[in-house]
């Protein structure tokens, strides 16, 4: 696995953008964008939860653990199957710690990492239990398979131009191969 600190914020919701912090998740060389405490601090700041205190290695581990549990729930929703019990239990536990947030205070003094994680988990559960669940789509690129909100209803690939390009090239080659066999 290699690392890259370039974050994606085009998944349609913060919890889906968290999934994109591990790119090419199903390929031979996944890209870990939350490989360091500094990367986690940067990502949390970018989503509007600048850390009040320094992010710890435990905070980073909890963020990654939440991401993977959310990935399981998102992929289960798209596939119309039940998520794993562990993933669902974990997300529910993180969400249950949610409290009302004072965004003026967060803007001034920063946020507790646990508050950010619980807000993300709550957002995911609202999406997964509401009408936006029908808008979830999985990228057709086999190495990516990022789940995103498709408000157009027509997208095959995630917002990454690379996935769309690879998908179109793969489809073109398959058509050429089929035509040459005919």
UniProtKB/TrEMBL annotation:
Residue ranges constituting the Zinc finger CGNR domain according to the UniProt record: 136-176
Domain of life: Bacteria
InterPro entries, per database record: ABATE (IPR010852), ABATE_dom_sf (IPR023286), Znf_CGNR (IPR021005)
Pfam families in alphabetical order: ABATE, zf-CGNR
Transmembrane segments: none
Official protein name in the record: Putative stress-induced transcription regulator
The organism of origin for this protein: Agreia pratensis
């Amino acid at each position: 696995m290699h690392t890259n600190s370039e974050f994606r914020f085009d998944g349609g919701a913060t919890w889906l953008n968290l999934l994109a912090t591990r790119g090419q998740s199903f390929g031979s060389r996944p890209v870990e964008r939350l490989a360091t405490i500094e990367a986690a601090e940067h990502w949390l700041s970018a989503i509007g939860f600048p850390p009040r205190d320094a992010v710890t290695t435990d905070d980073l581990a909890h963020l990654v653990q939440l991401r993977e549990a959310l990935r399981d729930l998102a992929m289960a929703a798209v596939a119309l199957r039940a998520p794993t019990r562990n993933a669902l239990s974990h997300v529910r536990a993180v969400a249950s710690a949610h409290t009302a947030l004072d965004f003026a205070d967060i803007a001034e003094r920063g946020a507790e990492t646990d508050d950010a994680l619980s807000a993300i988990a709550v957002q995911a559960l609202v999406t997964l239990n509401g009408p936006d669940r029908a808008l979830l789509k999985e990228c057709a690129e086999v190495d990516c398979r990022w789940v995103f909100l498709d408000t157009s209803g027509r997208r095959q690939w995630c917002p990454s131009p690379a996935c769309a390009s690879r998908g179109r090239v793969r489809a073109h080659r398959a058509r050429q191969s089929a035509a040459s066999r005919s």
